[in-house]
Design brief:
The chain is built from 2 helices and no strands. The chain is mainly α. The chain has one domain. Helix 1 runs antiparallel to helix 2.
């Protein structure tokens, strides 16, 4: 997979995680464990996107 396509895929997953985090946080009783898991995954994706972008430059 070309690097640009990989980054685009990661961006889509990152945005989907953001929506899931917001949905979970809006629930009357959010699942804190799930929120932590989603936020960690979102951060992992962000770090990977940053690493890939830096390797392009």
């Amino acid at each position: 997979m070309p690097m640009d396509a990989r980054i685009a895929s990661l961006e889509q997953r990152h945005a989907a995680l953001e929506r899931r985090i917001l949905d979970e946080d809006r629930r009357p009783k959010p699942d804190d464990t799930e929120l932590v898991r989603l936020k960690r995954e979102k951060l992992r994706l962000k770090e990977e996107m940053t690493r890939l972008r830096n390797s392009l430059h």
